[in-house]
Every structure is written in structure tokens, then in C-alpha cells.
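#lab-general

N.A. 3:47 PM
ok so I finally got the sequence cleaned up, no stray characters, all 485 residues accounted for. can someone with queue access submit it? mine expired

B.Y. 3:52 PM
send it over

N.A. 3:53 PM
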Amino acid sequence: MFLRTDHGLELAGGTSALRFGRAPVLSAPARTAEWRGRIESFGWTPDLGAAIGSRDWWRGLATCTALCAAVWALAPSWNRPILSTVPAPLDGSALDEARSLSFGASALGGTSGMRLAATSRVVPLANTPERPIVEATATLGGGIASALERTGVGANEAREAAALVAGRVDPAELTPGTRLDITLGRRDSPSQPRPLEHLAFRARFDLALEIVREGGTLRLDARPIAIDHTPLRIRGRVGASLYRAARAAGAPAKAVESYIRTVSGLVPMGQVGQDDSFDLIVEQARAATGEVQLGQLLYAGLSGRRDVRLVRWQDGSRTEWLDPKGVGERKGTMMWPVAARISSNFGWRVHPVLGFRRLHKGMDFAAAYGSPIRATTDGRVASAGWHGGYGNFVKLDHGGGLATGYGHMSRIVVRAGSRVSQGQVIGYVGSTGLSTGPHLHYELWKNGVPVNPRSVAFATVQQLQGDELVRFRRHVAGLMGVAAR
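B.Y. 4:20 PM
back already:
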């Protein structure tokens, strides 16, 4: 069914947009709005890089050509100059004033920042007045006297001040780079050096020195600085990184590195868990003026999967890490007794001289005749001399049930009962005893049983006794009484 409307016939009862009849006629306002929309949507400058060859592209090319032609038609002739106004050149005082007020490179004659020339009202002074007192700072380098002379103090007075300081502190103890606060007084003429009125500096962490002038003479005042030597104790949880956790807790970098080296001798770092706790104590000196100096690691503790408690003990030139009971253990690998290749390892083999299969109780080193043989670690010479098939033989006792033997020597240079240190020469390679050529036969015993030298990590045990043990326990009690930070 179709309905008649003003625009023709329209399908009734549906949603179809089909219409029959003539096209609708728009009113004047509608036509104006339609043309305005077309003009606004019309692209005057289409992109010549897109849709090449389309109708919009050709229209844009025509617009560009028309604009270029308009510029060409309106441009002046190519050889006709464009006139402009040129300022008159400056000379004389006008040029000087312009240079002083303008910005420019000094290399091109610029005088930026310079003042204008003085006028006739300015009267020059015969003598420039000096400051009555000059305050200066100097850095200690070659000595007190040279630092004062560089500041302007006379040589005689500088040496006098240096002598006063040397009477209180050894000049060798003064740290280069120390800051000197110097006050110079008035002088009679510019040709004379200024007198020293005051000198102050920190000679040591616990001592400050001051030189003042009283009645024409210099006097030295020493001001001791109170120092608190209570150690710094830091505890914390290991977490993801032991190093970062200790540094975040306030431990100095060198102390943390020493802590890790000390603890890793007993517990590999790979076995330290995140829930383990670290405990370290560091030397600390806190001055009354607020400065703090941190020193060496004194205590290293670790609790968790494995407990470690080590105390640093120094007696004279000897420094050891001991447990709180005074028992220490130094971990390390024994050095090779001779610089040579291994010709025969520990185990069963056919004896090169006897010709039958037997256990080779050590290692053979194919070294040249006369090569030096060294002790693999510290010990005592248990025996030194001829020992059957071993020829010239040396046995060293290292304590803790460990001993080493060195056979087939050409010459022995140690005596039974003497002490030897690691790396000390005890003899020379030879071919004595049951031997087919110059070499060193090296053995290692643990509780009297031969073991493979490759499989043993050597340990030296130290036990404190007597008065030293009493002092050590007193030292440990003082450390354990320090409160954690």
C-alpha cells in the first residue's frame, strides 16, 4: 500500500526509504546551509603526497601552480636591490659607550660588563687603603711554615708558628689537606708582610690547636677533644642480598666486605638464607664535636641455618679470628710443594722399579734436578734424613692430626724439631731411594692414614691459653655488651 505525501508516493506501514515521484525541493535556507557545508568540507590544500592521481590531488596541484605563478608575477626583478635604512657608523666616545653597554665576545672587541669611563669629578687616590684584618684559609701541604708563607705571613714568623706546633704534635702526624684558618693583622706598609694574629686547625681527631697573638708574642693553645670509642653494632635480616642489607643498615662498605670474607671461610655465601640474621661490630670513634670515624670489623656473627660467631683478636703483630671461647680456625688450601707438573697421582699403579701393582700413597712431581722444595703450610719438622725407599725424606707435623712427607730429595736443608713456615725451602729435588729419575714424592697423612692431597683443605687450629685467654674473654664480654643500633 502506498500513501500520498507532499513529496510523492511512500510505502505505507514499512521502514523502507523508497519514494516514488519527483525529488524533494529544498527551501532557500536549506540550500544555503547545504552550500555552506560543501564549502567548509572542501579541501583547499589537499595533501599532494596522498591519493596521487585523484580529483582532489589534481585540484591541489592546480592550486599550488597558481600560487607559484602569483609569487612570480608579483616579485620584483632579480637584479634590483631592496632598499633599507642603514644606521650611521659610530666612532669615538659613542663607540666606546655602545661597546660597554652591548653584549659580545671579548675576542671580537666586546667589553660586556665594563663600566663607563670616569668623569672629571672622580679624583684618583694616591694610596689605596688596605683592609685592617684579612681572614684566609689554607690547605696543609708541605708544612705549616710553607702554608703560612703562601698566605702572606713573614718567613720568620711562619717558622716560629711551625716550631710551636712541632713542640706539641709531630709534624709527620699532620694529615696533608688539613684546613688552616688564618687571620692576618695590620701592617705598617704594603712592602711588609702581614703579622699572624690567629691560626686554628685540627691536628688530630682528638686534638685541636690554636695560635694567638698576645702582647706581640705568639702563644699555642691545645684543646683536647673528647672521643667516645664505643663500637658500632649493627644487626639485621639478610634478605635478598647480605651486602645491600648491611649497607642499608648503616655498616661501612669496607666493614661489610671484611664481614663477608670472614664468614664465607666457614659458611659459603650460597648457603646463607634470606631469613638468616647478621650481626657485626665495627670500631667507632665519635668526637664531641660530632665527627665520626669508623674502623675495622671487630665481630662477625651469623645466625640461621648455620651459626657463626667470630671475634677479631690482635696480639702484637698477630691478627686472628677466634670464636668466643678462644679457639680459632684458619681455612685455606695448601700450596704445591714444587713448581712442576704432576707425573703420578694418588692411587693404585704398577711400581716403576718393583714392577708389581701397589698403592701409590702420594703424588709425584716431575721437577728438574735441584729444584727447590717448599713446605706446603706451617709446621714442625718431625724427621729429616734417610728413610728407606724414600731416600732423603722430610716429614712435617702440622697439628690436628695432619702431616706431610717429601721424598727422594737430593739435599735436605732443615733439621728435626725446627719450625717452618708455608713456602719455606726444606730441600731440593733429587732421585735418591727407589727412583727412576729426579722427582718429588709428596704424601699427606690424616691421623696417620695416607689421603689424597687433592681432597684435603688444610686447617690450622689456634687455642688461646693463660693470661691471653683471660684478656680475650674480657674483650669478648665488652663487645657482647654493646647495644645494637
